[in-house]
Structures are given as C-alpha cells and as structure tokens.
Amino acid sequence: xxxxxVSGYSNSGKTCVAELLLDSWKKKGLKxxxxxxxxxxxxxxxxPNTDSWRHARAxxxxxxxxxxxxxxxFLYNEISLEEQIDFxxxxxxxxxxxxxxxxxxxxxxxxLCIKDREDIVAQWNDKIIAISGIASEPNEFYKExxxxxxxxNTDQLIEFVNTFLEI
Length: 167
Hints:
By secondary structure, this protein is α/β, with parallel strands linked by helices. It is built from 5 helices and 9 strands.
C-alpha cells in the first residue's frame, strides 16, 4: 500500500488536492482509502440522540453502524496513526492511502499546500515532494521541489504524484 500525505494550514487547499487525487485514482480503477485529521474543537463524531450516539454515551468504545449505504466505525478510544493505517489496510486492502491534514507526519511523502510563501518555510520538512495551493506558481521550485498550482495545473499535479508513487 502506498501512502501520501496532503498537509498544510487550514484553508490552504488540502481538501481540493485530496479530492483531485482521489478522483483521478478512482478513475484509474485503484482501490483507495483516506484518513482526515481534524483539529477543530467543534468536530462531532456522531449525531446527538441517534442510536449510535447513545451507544457511545452508554460506554461503548467502538460503535459500528451498518446500512445499505455503507458502514461506519466510531472508535472512541485513542489509537495511533500507525494503528489506524494498519486497520485501514487490513479492512480495505487498498492500493493507496491518502492522509489529509497530518502536518507533523514526516514519515511519508507529502504535498504541502500553501496560502502564501511564508507557509513553506514554517512547515518545511524533507518528506515534501511538491508544493501546491493558491500561492504556488507554475514552473517554480523550492529546494528542488516543484510548485504546482492544483487550481491551474491539475493534470500536471496528478501526473507528478502518479509518477512519484509509480502508479
């Protein structure tokens, strides 16, 4: 399983890049999975007063919901990212796992999304393979990494990532 991180500050274009890549991989027939890291304190795992919410409130650390539209597992106990990656790989046997929002995860290759040039310096690490987002300009490089604006050069970004991941 190949793993790619899309990192950056809030509103830097991470989800747009993630959607672009996930959609292109799905069209190629690849099995894909994604994990989104959420930092907002207002985030809510489940909908209050539903049966699954009531199960969790009563003490269940894992609540599963199954329907004709899909399946959901709410894990209310703390697990590491590596444990979550292993779990996703085990249940999905996916070709690619995209991690969105894991700024501090420097173990896997990353696309850094930026709102302005200062974002690069503040978040730089050696696992960054490309820079994208609204402040990236075509045909520019930072520390030999290409800057590819995902809103302007979508095909170029997809091709670069696919070449890097060898897919």
